[in-house]
Each structure stands twice: as C-alpha cells, then as structure tokens.
Amino acid sequence: MSYSLNVCHLYGDLMNTYGDLGNILVLKYLANKMGVELTSEVVSLDQPFDPAKYDIVVFGGGQDFEQSIISKDIQSKKQALVDFIEDNGSVVAICGGYQLLGHYYIGANGEKLMGIGALDHYTDKQKDHRFIGNVVIENEETGEKYHGFENHQGITFLGQGERPLGKVLEGHGNNGQDKTEGAIYKNVYCTYFHGPILARNNDIAKHVLMNALKRKYPDADLTPEADLKVGATF
Amino acid sequence: MSLKSSIATAAGKSSYWFLHTFFKGGSSLPGKITKRLDPEILATLGRDYDVIVITGTNGKTLTTALTVQVLKEKYDNILTNPTGSNMEQGIITTFLHAPKSKGKRPLAVLEVDEANVIMVTKYIKPKAFVFTNIFRDQMDRYGEIYTTYNKILNGVALAPNATIIANGDAPIFHSKQLPNPIVYYGFDNQKDGDIKATPNTDGVLCPQCQHVLHYHFISYSNLGKYFCPNCGFERPELNFALNTINELTPKSSTFEIDGEPITINIGGVYNIYNALAAYSVGRFMGVSPAQVKKAFEKGKRIFGRQEEINVDGKLVTLILVKNPVGLNQVIDMISTDKDPFTFIGLLNANYADGIDTSWIWDGDFERLPKMNIKQFITGGERYKDITYRLQVAGIDPKKHLVEPDLDKVVEMIPKAPTKKVYILATYTAMLHLRKVFAAKGFIKGGMD
C-alpha cells in the first residue's frame, strides 16, 4: 500500500525568515525515501485552516512586523488548530510559530501580542538583548542530540503538560535560566532553533513523519518506514 | 581647515602612506586615526564635494562602479571608495587619499553600509541617495528588513533636501512618506498579470493595510510591479524604466532603457537593476542617454561579486554568495550558460560569512538538477550542511564529490570534466581560495 501525507505550511508566505522552507523540503525528501508521497500547501492570512485536510502543520519563524499581523489573523484559526493538536496532529513550530501557539508574547516594542494558547507556555522579552549562537540540546527521553542556531529576544516559559524538546548542553534555549529548549506536547514539536531544524536534525523529521503516518494509518504495519536510517547532517 | 582638522588630516594621510607603502593595505586605520584626532573630520574633508551615497543590501558595489563609469562621461573629477571601505572609517580614508582637486567642484560617489548612512549625513549633506534594495541578509548581524530601512532613513532624515533615487520595484521604498524629492526606476518589460511572490519571499505585506501584495509581474524576489488588491496601494510611477530584456548570458545582458538599447558586460538580472540605478543617477546628473550607453559599452569588463580566473586552462568564475536573494540571482545567472559546467559550492560560517547557515535552505538549489552540470563539488568548514542541501535538492549522487579542505578543492579544479567551472563561495571561503589562487600564480595579489 502506498501512503501519502499532506502538509499545511502555515503562513508560509510570511513566516519564512531563516530557511524555514528547508523543513518542508526535508520532510519531502525523507518521506520520498520511505516511499510516502508528501504534498504541501500554504495557508495564510484570511484563509481558513481545515484540520481534516492536513496531517502535518509547519509553522515557521518570521519578522516582528509579520508576526504581529499574524497574531491577529491566527485568532480566527484558533479553534481549528487546537482541535488538530488535541487530535494528535503533527506540528513543527519554530520561533514565532512556537510563541504564537502559546498564550502570548511580548513584542519588540513591549506590546503584548496574543497567541492561541494551544500550548501552555508564554513568552516575555529580554531587554535590549538577544540570544544568538549555536545550541546543542539532548532529548532526555530518547537520548538524541539536536544541533541548531538560535537568534531570539523572546524568553519562553513552559507550562502544564509540556516538556522541553531537550535539555540545553550548549547555548541558551527557551529562557537562558532553566536549561530547557523548545517544547513537546502530544505530537507538537516547538523550538527556537532557526529555520531548517529538520534539515540538521533528521531524527526529529523522522519522528514527525512517523507520528503522522501512525495517526493517519493506525492499522498499518509501518516497520519498513520506521527502519529508514537517518544520519547527522551537521 | 581648522588647526585640529589639519593635524588630523596630516596624521591620517601619513598613516595611509605608511600602511600603504609598508603593509600594502590600510583602508580603515588612517580613518580611525584621523577621526580620533578630529571627530568631525568628515565635515571638513567632504565640504568641497557633491556627494552621492549608494546604499542597500545587494548591488552597492557594482552600482557604485557603474555610476562612476557613467558620470565620467560628463565629470572629470570623481572620488569613490573601494569595495569593503563602506563604513565611516573607510570613507574618511577615501577622502584622505583623494588627489587635490583643481577647478570644478568634484563629485564623490560613495558606497555606504546601511547602518553607516547616518555617520556620513551627520557631517555631509549629500546631493542624492541611491537605494538599491533591502533583503534579509545575515540577520545575526543586520536584523530585519524594516530595521535596516529605518537605519537608512535615520541617516536620510539629516539630509531632507537630497534627492532619493530608489528602486521603484521594491515595495519597502514606497512605504513611508519622506520630505525628500524621490525619483523611481524599475522594470516595465512584461505584460500585466496577477501573481503572488513564491512562499519563500520576504517583505510581501502591503505597508498600508498589511494584506499580502500581488504583482502584475515579478522580476525577482519581491521586486516587480506590485499592487494591493485590498487597498489599492501600488508601485509608483517610474521616472526611468527598463522596457525590454533582449538577451541574458552569464557574461552579458542586452536590454533597453527608455527605448535606448544597451549592453553591459556582466550577467545577471540583478545587475540590470544596478545598471538602471547608474543610468538614473546619470540622467539625474545631466548625463545624456547616449553618453550612458557609451559608458556601459566601453568594453571594460566590470566585476561585482564575481571574477573570472584561468586555472590550468579551466575557465573559473568565482562568485561571492552571502544571502538567499543574491544566491538565487547567481543560480539564475548560471542557468543562462549554454555550455556544460562544473558546480562548486563552498560554505564557511565565520563572522564575515554569517555564523548562521540557515539561509542556504532559502536558496533555490532545486534548479541545479535541471542544468547541464557534469560535476558537483561541495566543501568548506560547513561542508556537511551544503552537501546535504544539494542532496535534498536532488542532484545526482554519482556526479557529487565532497571535499571539506579548500586547498584540495583547488587541486580538483584542473581535473573537472568541463572547461567551465562556477564556484559559489561565502566570504571567508572566497578569501581562502583567492589566497591559494594567488600563491599558485593564477591571480595577482589579494583583494582590497
């Protein structure tokens, strides 16, 4: 049997600052190796998000200006996104996308901008300072190590039901205080790693694909797909 | 000149002579010394010049070179700064180094880093500014495009009488009301349609109503004849327009501006914009269209971020890449080559390259498998990233060689299966290659 997955590139025309498109390219590349057909489409301003249509949502990072516009628009998609997440839909959310899945974030000018509260975190901001540089974290459940690059002024604090994507070994992570980086909730992976996190960390890409396949084809034997070997690309 | 300025100038000049004579360099230190002795030295040095400031993310260097070439048709005495000397100290050094001017008021055509525009306008009121474009560029250093534009405007605010000569196809240059007179140049070479930019383009929100902009046509990235279907915001009237593109090759472009057929000896659509900017400055300064055409066609090869090197009989084109839009323009340019070639991609991630390599994923490498490329080589300190990028783009693994060591990459060039070789390299990788090429006698000297 041949499998297919459909990706929603949420605000892909606006939240794409740091090679975020790489995630879609890598999902396609690895899916193709598994023999899975993967398609993607952009859902943006003034367009509804239909949770039944998609298996994976990729929500990238953007510039402050674009993100403030999306903070307003995404409220109209809030319920649909919450439903998708609660129904174990797979999500990869980066920087701004990560912040907007939480309750709120404080923008560069100090204004409070609303997220959708699908996850229980919130984001404050550092005063005149950004965390910039390479990051290495360890997923404490799997032992996998992830490499990335962070560049963010926001500091995020995790809430109920969330666990970090990993423990910070190098760099700053969510807030530079509690050694956490990113968040995992159900099948949602959030991170401050820039842009192409999946390109540099094929392990996460594989988890996302497998979670999506298991959800869409609950009775299928996915052993061959799970056997795909992925290596480090950093 | 005040005593303080005289002393500062003398100190700067002698340090320039010293550095130039004994160390074959010194583009910013004399400026630094002079500035230390007289913080306002630029006011003194620039007082007698009509200054044109050229700024923006991409195309500063080539636009500056072309503008000088064009203005030479009418003006004898033109001062300009060498590549890389586009910050305050480098600009002071440029003035220090200027030959004594006789007779007519001289011109200074200066490439200025976006954040340094204000350092110049604090002391000098330019006659004109040229805005080439603003794209995301090594954001670990520069920040977002709106921040960059504001930095430029902070500088422009100190010179409200200067004419702005701006790329009219860039929506960002039409986003704010400014007191300055503005002249727009742009492309008018395609029929009107209704399209949107590809998803991976930045700066596509309407500055008036924040809906996604549409385009009648796009030349590249977010540049084109834009309009907002929601509020009616649209591209301004163009004062100078490109009407037709006749032929594009990697080494030349033939096109028509305001009906005048022109050829420039450098490839790439982005360089047509640079030529159009230079044309517009020329016209603004009273150079006739025929004189501009003559200036462009004088036959002198012009090099922006690319140069040609003969390596043991191979025709190597070395091209600097530093941000996604520039990279995509280079990919577009090499796609116009009719001959088969070898593609070499070299990625470093030092400070000068940008320490975040994420941007390679915004490059449209997916076009490479469709080109007539016989061999791919990837290398540099971050060879794993660029290697994987090309794998995902779908290039044939049988044609792909990986060599992290740049010295060894140079040794592979004579063995390439094609006569033509394109090397796309980030800044420090390019410097490294040039050093090796120089040591082997393929090129003379280093870069300014």
UniProtKB/TrEMBL annotation, chain A:
The entry's keywords: Cell shape, Cell wall biogenesis/degradation, Glutamine amidotransferase, Hydrolase, Ligase, Peptidoglycan synthesis, Transferase
Domain CobB/CobQ-like glutamine amidotransferase residues, every copy: 6-201
Residue positions binding substrate: 130
EC number of this enzyme: 6.3.5.13, 3.5.1.2
Listed pathway(s): Cell wall biogenesis; peptidoglycan biosynthesis
SUPFAM superfamilies: Class I glutamine amidotransferase-like
Manganese is among the record's keywords: no
Pfam families: GATase_3
Nucleotide-binding among keywords: no
Annotated catalytic residues: 95 (nucleophile), 194
GO molecular function: carbon-nitrogen ligase activity on lipid II; glutaminase activity; transferase activity
UniProt xrefs under InterPro entries: Class_I_gatase-like, CobQ_GATase1, GATase_3, Lipid_II_synth_GatD
Domain of life: Bacteria
Catalytic activity: beta-D-GlcNAc-(1->4)-Mur2Ac(oyl-L-Ala-gamma-D-Glu-L-Lys-D-Ala-D-Ala)-di-trans,octa-cis-undecaprenyl diphosphate + L-glutamine + ATP + H2O = beta-D-GlcNAc-(1->4)-Mur2Ac(oyl-L-Ala-D-isoglutaminyl-L-Lys-D-Ala-D-Ala)-di-trans,octa-cis-undecaprenyl diphosphate + L-glutamate + ADP + phosphate + H(+); L-glutamine + H2O = L-glutamate + NH4(+)
GO biological process, one term: cell wall organization
Family: Belongs to the CobB/CobQ family. GatD subfamily.
Function: The lipid II isoglutaminyl synthase complex catalyzes the formation of alpha-D-isoglutamine in the cell wall lipid II stem peptide. The GatD subunit catalyzes the hydrolysis of glutamine to glutamate and ammonia. The resulting ammonia molecule is channeled to the active site of MurT.
Assembly and interaction partners: Forms a heterodimer with MurT.
Name assigned to this protein: Lipid II isoglutaminyl synthase (glutamine-hydrolyzing) subunit GatD
Gene, per the UniProt record: gatD
From TrEMBL, chain B:
Lipid II isoglutaminyl synthase (glutamine-hydrolyzing) subunit MurT C-terminal domain sequence ranges: 320-430
Assembly description: Forms a heterodimer with GatD.
Designated gene of the protein: murE_1
Residue numbers annotated as active site: 356
GO MF terms held by the record: acid-amino acid ligase activity; ATP binding; carbon-nitrogen ligase activity on lipid II; zinc ion binding
PANTHER family hit by this protein: LIPID II ISOGLUTAMINYL SYNTHASE (GLUTAMINE-HYDROLYZING) SUBUNIT MURT, MUR LIGASE FAMILY MEMBER
Keywords annotated in UniProt: ATP-binding, Cell shape, Cell wall biogenesis/degradation, Ligase, Metal-binding, Nucleotide-binding, Peptidoglycan synthesis, Zinc
Extent of the signal sequence: none
Organism the protein comes from: Lentilactobacillus parakefiri
GO biological process, one term: regulation of cell shape
Substrates-to-products reaction catalysed: beta-D-GlcNAc-(1->4)-Mur2Ac(oyl-L-Ala-gamma-D-Glu-L-Lys-D-Ala-D-Ala)-di-trans,octa-cis-undecaprenyl diphosphate + L-glutamine + ATP + H2O = beta-D-GlcNAc-(1->4)-Mur2Ac(oyl-L-Ala-D-isoglutaminyl-L-Lys-D-Ala-D-Ala)-di-trans,octa-cis-undecaprenyl diphosphate + L-glutamate + ADP + phosphate + H(+); beta-D-GlcNAc-(1->4)-Mur2Ac(oyl-L-Ala-gamma-D-Glu-L-Lys-D-Ala-D-Ala)-di-trans,octa-cis-undecaprenyl diphosphate + ATP = beta-D-GlcNAc-(1->4)-Mur2Ac(oyl-L-Ala-gamma-D-O-P-Glu-L-Lys-D-Ala-D-Ala)-di-trans,octa-cis-undecaprenyl diphosphate + ADP; beta-D-GlcNAc-(1->4)-Mur2Ac(oyl-L-Ala-gamma-D-O-P-Glu-L-Lys-D-Ala-D-Ala)-di-trans,octa-cis-undecaprenyl diphosphate + NH4(+) = beta-D-GlcNAc-(1->4)-Mur2Ac(oyl-L-Ala-D-isoglutaminyl-L-Lys-D-Ala-D-Ala)-di-trans,octa-cis-undecaprenyl diphosphate + phosphate + H(+)
Annotated function: The lipid II isoglutaminyl synthase complex catalyzes the formation of alpha-D-isoglutamine in the cell wall lipid II stem peptide. The MurT subunit catalyzes the ATP-dependent amidation of D-glutamate residue of lipid II, converting it to an isoglutamine residue.
Transmembrane spans: none
Sites where the protein binds Zn(2+): 206, 209, 228, 231
Protein name per its UniProtKB record: Lipid II isoglutaminyl synthase (glutamine-hydrolyzing) subunit MurT
Keyword Nucleotide-binding: yes
EC number(s) reported in the record: 6.3.5.13
Domain of life: Bacteria
Family that this chain belongs to: Belongs to the MurCDEF family. MurT subfamily.
Pfam families (UniProt xref): Mur_ligase_M, MurT_C
EC category name: ligase
Pathway annotation: Cell wall biogenesis; peptidoglycan biosynthesis
Residue runs in coiled coils: none
Positions of the Mur ligase central domain: 54-280
